[in-house]
Structure formats: structure tokens, C-alpha cells
């Protein structure tokens, strides 16, 4: 078990390194291919008023003329140990983890990302709780009442859920929840209240995005759970559980659902990992200042350090989630041998 | 009244293709401490019968009629909840394939503990101790260690022992073993059968052993019920069935018994043809399309369903052939053949 964990950890670090190399290569090459020179990149830091001479000096000092590998080394070192940025007028200390400075705001990227993280985290985790509960419950009931009206209705809605685009379901849920009835939720778009400041406001502001996002995922989980439950409920061990005299609820939950859990858990880890890098569409639809919105803004402004930073953080979550899923596998299914 | 008594039990399943008459008018009695073997080919309704006794068809689409009396209580008409409370406690079951019949994600111990704690209000610790005791009693070495193993970590024979431990954990008065040895090696089969015989003596339970192999029940059973197409075709003591069988289907089963002194594949007189459809059951005697002696009943077998009639001292046979003809055929045509081989 311990060697297995260590191996998976090493593998995760390797994956992250590879991702960072690829990301760096892309963001180094793309601007160059688009015609950017070391000077034009440096100019973004020193400002428009600087003379050509100053820009050239800054470009040298920032290392834009060094070979790709050296620049990557510096970038990687910045993430691990922090870096000093010297762009002419003065030296700027960028503490670890340093993802560089924004072209636009000249502020380090990492604190910005840290600001955005709670939004995305709140959105993703809140939605995840809803979609897992709703999706799994629907799937279980559908499987138990297979062919019933409930089953057919739920699976119809689920099919819509997995196939409709999020901005559509987003608008529909806005209409359903925000207009024309006394219980409407009129959360102003674009506001986020940190949980520790006011939990009620936090939830109130997020409820619509949660529902929208959760609906999309719940649909898939309902289908997955239903398929899994149909399979496990016809297993011999279910008959054994009934023969022991267990009541039906425990037969379904403790034996049936437990048997169907592995694929649900796998998908959940991957979904959550992806989502923690930013729920781009939901955040845009509701103007939530999360990582996804941050990424979109960064791309729109061609703010490469920001784009790189957000890409790497997103990659980190995916790799991390994969790691957790791999470890949980062994916990969930004792037949999985670790070694 | 007997400890267990089935009266005209019928279990039918409506399906898209028609009504499946899996069990069609089955009656028998069984006392505490006695063993009944139910024998028949695949699809004859043995498992449906045993699940029916445990009430596991309740709430499904099965149509059940008749009576099941267990220790003075009628179960067919009883509520689902009432029968559930008896399951695992008063009556328990051992299944054919212990690997698929045990949950792969829980330890053997947890599954026994669960079975015990449903019916006994005890702490986890007490239940665990009981589970270890039970594992020891069914002959699992180092039970205090094995209690924490998962089913896949056991060998087939050990798994079946664990399954038996689970079934016996609440000291049931009726134990049904549905093909308990079919999934096991021949040598392990014998061990498991020995174990079941010993345990039955200790627990003084009524035991039903279900099998398609007469050899399995030969030594264990007091009584034997031969099933064909959802009906009983012959019923009697073990001696009746092995020494004086009167039904052509039973003769066929005896002839196709695997013998230790022969190759397993080589059988003396296999029954030709295949088991009947339970939707379109053959007219008259359900066995007639496969019966070697069909023409000796002069067409009656095709037209008229034979009744299950007593031939002598509780020995019941469902066949149109007159008693004397059957005995003559057994003595002169069948028995010498079986002995010669
Ligand atoms: N739930 C059900 N719905 C419809 N038909 C069923 C159902 N359960 C069993 N049957 C049918 O009832 C018949 C008897 O099945 P059963 O499992 O009792 O046979 P068996 O004697 O135990 O055979 P085997 O030796 O293969 O275990 C089979 O033809 C089977 O297809
Ligand atoms: S009634 Fe006729 S067909 Fe049926 S078993 Fe007896 S002899 Fe064979
Ligand atoms: Mg069976």
C-alpha cells in the first residue's frame, strides 16, 4: 500500500512536470509565432512610455532572449522557490509559488488566483454535493422502479440534462427560479460573498449557479447510477442479503448501491478535478469571479502569465483528483490489489 | 402437524412469452432433524421452490398459491415484513456459488456479523466473537484471522464453509441448501457434505438439500423428492428411491448418476432429450416426449396427466403404468443394467 501511494505520488509529480513543460512551450511559442519579439513582450512590462533602449535592457533582464530551456528552468524554479523580477526600474520579489506577473496589471498572478479559488471551490463543491445526492437518488429510484412513469420521466429529463448546453439550462433555471412567483431567488449576478463572511449570503448568491451546474452533472450521474443499480440488484449477493432477513432499504443501500459505487466514484473524481480548474461556462453565465472567468478574461486580454498560471492550477486539480481516485479505488473495491 | 408442510404450492411467473409454471402443485412434509433431498434437472423448479419457502418471491411479479406451514405458521398469506423477520433466523439458505453469493466488498466476518445482528440485539464485539466461533465450527482454520478476509481471498471450499457459517449464525430451524456443492471440486464436495451432516446433527435443523445429482443426496437424505417440470414425480424414503424406484424419470436419473469408478463423462443411460418448457408443458404426462416406456401406457400418457399416487407406505409415484408393471420393469430391465455397469 505504501509503495503504491509513493509510486502514484511520483507519477503525479511527473505528470505535473510534463504538463508544465507543454504549457510553457505552448505559451512561449504561440506569441513568437504570432510575431511577438522579446522586445514587444518586455514592452508590456515596462510600459508604453519607455524608450527602445529601456525596453531592450528589460528584455535582457527578464530573460526573454535566453533559450527556451533556460526560461523554463527559471519559470519552474519560480513556482518552487519564488523569483526576483528585474525589469529595469527596480527589482520585484515574487514569492513562491511564483507564476510570474500579469502583463496588464503588473501584479503577481498567484495572489490573483488565490482570490479566485474560493469562488470556484464554493461553486464546484456546492454543486457537487447537490448533483451527487440528486443524481444518485434519482438513479437508484429509477432502477428500483424500472419502466415506471417516474423512471421514464427521470430518464427523459436526464437525457435533456446531458445533451442541453449549460447556457440554455442556466437561462431556464434563471427563469424558473427568478421570475414570476413569490419564492423567487433574485441573486444579483456577479456577486460572491465569502463563506466565512456570511454563510447565508454565500449560499444565496450561489444557489442558482449550483442548481444549473448540478443539473447538468446530476443527469449523467442518474443514468450511471441507474445502469449500475440495475446490474448489482440482480447479483446473487443481493439475494443473499434478502435471505439473511435484511430490510429492503438496507439491501438497496448497503448491498446494491455499495456494489455500484466504483464507477460513480471514478467519474466523480474526474468531474470534480476538471471543475476545480474553473467552471468556465457557469461562471461566465452568472458572472462569477472564479477561475474559469479569470481564464476567459486572461485569454481575452492575451495576458499570457495569467493564462499559464490558471492552466497549471487546473492541471494540478485534475492530476490531484486522479491520484485521489486511484487511491480510493483500493478502499472501495478490496479486490483491487495494490503493490 | 409437521414442522414444515407444503400444500399444493404453485409459483407462476407471467412473462411476455406466457405463464411460466415453475412450481405447479408441490406438496411435502419435513420434520426437525430430518433431511429432504429435492432432485431434478436444470429448470425443474428447485430453486424457485426454495426461494418461495423463504418468501423471496413476495412483492415480485410471481403468482403464488397454496400453503406453506412452518412450525404452525402459514407463510404464503403472511405479510412480507413478517416473513422477512423469519428469514435468516428461523429459516436460512445456502447458495450454489459462494463467490457470487457473498458481497465482494465486505469481509466474510462483516457479512456474518450483519446476519447475526439483524436478529440479535448485541454489540459489534459480541457479534464478531460469534462470527469467529461460527467460522471455527465450520472448520475454517485460524478463524480469528480469517474473519477479516474478503470472500475472494478464500478458496472455493472455504468460501462455502463461510457461507454455511453465515446461514447457521442465527441457529435456524430450517436450512435450505441449493446445490451447495455444484461449484466445488469433487474432493471438496465430499468434505462439505460431511460437514453439513455433522452440523445438522448438532443443530437439529430440518434440512433441504437441492441438487440435480442423486449421488449428492444418496447418503444424506432421509427422504427424496424427484421433481420434473415443476411437479413432484416421485417421493419416498432414500431406500424407496434407490432400492425400489418406480418412475421412469427416476430410473433415468439413477442411470445418469456420475460414479466414482467411471469417467465422469461416461454415463450409463442418459435421459434423451431436454427438460420441458414450463410455458408449453407437454400434454398429459410432462415426461412423455422423453419416456422410453410411453407407448406401454397405450396413449394415456399423452392425453391424461397422471396423478401422484401412493404405491406403498408413503412412497408416491406419478405414472400411468400400473404398479406391477413398474416393479417388473425395474427388477427385470433397469436394475440388472445398472448393476452390470
Ligand atoms: N423470476 C422469474 N421469472 C420468470 N421465470 C422464472 C423466474 N425464476 C425462475 N423462472 C423459471 O422457472 C424455471 C425453474 O427455475 P429454477 O431456477 O427453479 O430451476 P432449477 O430447478 O433450480 O434449475 P437449476 O438446476 O438450473 O438451478 C426456469 O425455467 C426459470 O426460467
Ligand atoms: S406416465 Fe407414461 S410417459 Fe409418463 S412417466 Fe409414466 S410411462 Fe412415462
Ligand atoms: Mg437452481
Automatic annotation (TrEMBL), chain A:
CDD domains: TM_PBP2 (cd06261). Residues 117-329 form the ABC transmembrane type-1 domain. It is found in: Cell membrane. Keywords: Cell membrane, Membrane, Transmembrane, Transmembrane helix, Transport. One of its GO terms (biological process) is transmembrane transport. It comes from the Bacteria. The chain crosses the membrane at residues 9-30, 119-144, 156-180, 200-219, 259-281, 310-332. InterPro entries: BPD_transp_1_N, MetI-like, MetI-like_sf. It is a multi-pass membrane protein. GO terms for cellular component: plasma membrane. Belongs to the binding-protein-dependent transport system permease family. This is Peptide/nickel transport system permease protein. It comes from Microbispora rosea.
UniProtKB/TrEMBL annotation, chain B:
Gene3D superfamilies: P-loop containing nucleotide triphosphate hydrolases. The keyword Ion transport does not apply. Residues 4-254 form the ABC transporter domain. It is found in: Cell membrane. One of its GO terms (biological process) is peptide transport. It is a peripheral membrane protein. SMART domains: AAA. GO terms for cellular component: plasma membrane. Keywords: ATP-binding, Cell membrane, Membrane, Nucleotide-binding, Transport. One of its GO terms (molecular function) is ATP binding. Pfam families: ABC_tran (PF00005), oligo_HPY (PF08352). Belongs to the ABC transporter superfamily. This is Peptide/nickel transport system ATP-binding protein. It comes from Microbispora rosea. The lineage of its organism: Bacteria, Bacillati, Actinomycetota, Actinomycetes, Streptosporangiales.
Amino acid at each position: 500500500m505504501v509503495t503504491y501511494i509513493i509510486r502514484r505520488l511520483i507519477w503525479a509529480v511527473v505528470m505535473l512536470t510534463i504538463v508544465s513543460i507543454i504549457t510553457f512551450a505552448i505559451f512561449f511559442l504561440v506569441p513568437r509565432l504570432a510575431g511577438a519579439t522579446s522586445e514587444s513582450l518586455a514592452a508590456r512590462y515596462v510600459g508604453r512610455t519607455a524608450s527602445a533602449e529601456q525596453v531592450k535592457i528589460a528584455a535582457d533582464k527578464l530573460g526573454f532572449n535566453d533559450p527556451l530551456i533556460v526560461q523554463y528552468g527559471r519559470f519552474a524554479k519560480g513556482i518552487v522557490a519564488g523569483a526576483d523580477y528585474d525589469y529595469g526600474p527596480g527589482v520585484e520579489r515574487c514569492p513562491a509559488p511564483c507564476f510570474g506577473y500579469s502583463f496588464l496589471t503588473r501584479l503577481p498572478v498567484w495572489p490573483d488566483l488565490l482570490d479566485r479559488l474560493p469562488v470556484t471551490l464554493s461553486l464546484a463543491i456546492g454543486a457537487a454535493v447537490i448533483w451527487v445526492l440528486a443524481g444518485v437518488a434519482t438513479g437508484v429510484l429509477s432502477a428500483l422502479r424500472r419502466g415506471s412513469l417516474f423512471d421514464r420521466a427521470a430518464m427523459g429529463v436526464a437525457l435533456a440534462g446531458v445533451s442541453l448546453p449549460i447556457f440554455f439550462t442556466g437561462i431556464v433555471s434563471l427563469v424558473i427560479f427568478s421570475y414570476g412567483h413569490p419564492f423567487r431567488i433574485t441573486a444579483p449576478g456577479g456577486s460572491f460573498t465569502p463563506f466565512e463572511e456570511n454563510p447565508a449570503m454565500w449560499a444565496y448568491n450561489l444557489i442558482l449557479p449550483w442548481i444549473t451546474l448540478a443539473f447538468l452533472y446530476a443527469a449523467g450521474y442518474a443514468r450511471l447510477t441507474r445502469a449500475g443499480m440495475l446490474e448489482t440488484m440482480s447479483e446473487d449477493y443481493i439475494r443473499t442479503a434478502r435471505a439473511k432477513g435484511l430490510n429492503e432499504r438496507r439491501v438497496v443501500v448497503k448491498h446494491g448501491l455499495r456494489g455500484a459505487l466504483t464507477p460513480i466514484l471514478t467519474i466523480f473524481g474526474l468531474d470534480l478535478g476538471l471543475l476545480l480548474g474553473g467552471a468556465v461556462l457557469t461562471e461566465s453565465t452568472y458572472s462569477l469571479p472564479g477561475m474559469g472567468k479569470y481564464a476567459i478574461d486572461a485569454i481575452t486580454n492575451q495576458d499570457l502569465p495569467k493564462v499559464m498560471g490558471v492552466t497549471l492550477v487546473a492541471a494540478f486539480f485534475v492530476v490531484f483528483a486522479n491520484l485521489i481516485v486511484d487511491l480510493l479505488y483500493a478502499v472501495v473495491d478490496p479486490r483491487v490489489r495494490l503493490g | 402437524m409437521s414442522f414444515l408442510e407444503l400444500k399444493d404450492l404453485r409459483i407462476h411467473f407471467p412473462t411476455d412469452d406466457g405463464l411460466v409454471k415453475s412450481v405447479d402443485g408441490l406438496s411435502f412434509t419435513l420434520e426437525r432433524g430430518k433431511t429432504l433431498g429435492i432432485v431434478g434437472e436444470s429448470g425443474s423448479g428447485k430453486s424457485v421452490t426454495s426461494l418461495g419457502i423463504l418468501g423471496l418471491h413476495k412483492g415480485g411479479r410471481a403468482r403464488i398459491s397454496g400453503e406453506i406451514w412452518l412450525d404452525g405458521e402459514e407463510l404464503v398469506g403472511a405479510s412480507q415484513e413478517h416473513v422477512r423477520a423469519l428469514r435468516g433466523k428461523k429459516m436460512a439458505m445456502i447458495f450454489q456459488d459462494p463467490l457470487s453469493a457473498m458481497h465482494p466488498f465486505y469481509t466474510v466476518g462483516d457479512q456474518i456479523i450483519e446476519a447475526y445482528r439483524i436478529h440479535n440485539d448485541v454489540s459489534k464485539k459480541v457479534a464478531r466473537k460469534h462470527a469467529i466461533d461460527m467460522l471455527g465450527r465450520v472448520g475454517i482454520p485460524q478463524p480469528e484471522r480469517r474473519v477479516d478476509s474478503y470472500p475472494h481471498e478464500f478458496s472455493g471450499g472455504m468460501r462455502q464453509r463461510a457461507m454455511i457459517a453465515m446461514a447457521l449464525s442465527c441457529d435456524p430451524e430450517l436450512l435450505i441448501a441449493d446445490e451447495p456443492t455444484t461449484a466445488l471440486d469433487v474432493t471438496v464436495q465430499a468434505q462439505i457434505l460431511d460437514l453439513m451432516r455433522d452440523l445438522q446433527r448438532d443443530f437439529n435443523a430440518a434440512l433441504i438439500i437441492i441438487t440435480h445429482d442423486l449421488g449428492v443426496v444418496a447418503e444424506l437424505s432421509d427422504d427424496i423428492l424427484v421433481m420434473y417440470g415443476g411437479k413432484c414425480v416421485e417421493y419416498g424414503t432414500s431406500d424407496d428411491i434407490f432400492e425400489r424406484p418406480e418412475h421412469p424419470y427416476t430410473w433415468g436419473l439413477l442411470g445418469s448418476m456420475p460414479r466414482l469408478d467411471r469417467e465422469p463423462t461416461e454415463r450409463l443411460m442418459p435421459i434423451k432429450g431436454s427438460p420441458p418448457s414450463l410455458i408449453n408443458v407437454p400434454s398429459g404426462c410432462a415426461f412423455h416426449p422423453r419416456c422410453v416406456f410411453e407407448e406401454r401406457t397405450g396413449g394415456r400418457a399423452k392425453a391424461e396427466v397422471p396423478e401422484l399416487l401412493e404405491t406403498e407406505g408413503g412412497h408416491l409415484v406419478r405414472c400411468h403404468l400400473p404398479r406391477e408393471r413398474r416393479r417388473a420393469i425395474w427388477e427385470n430391465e433397469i436394475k440388472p443394467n445398472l448393476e452390470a455397469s
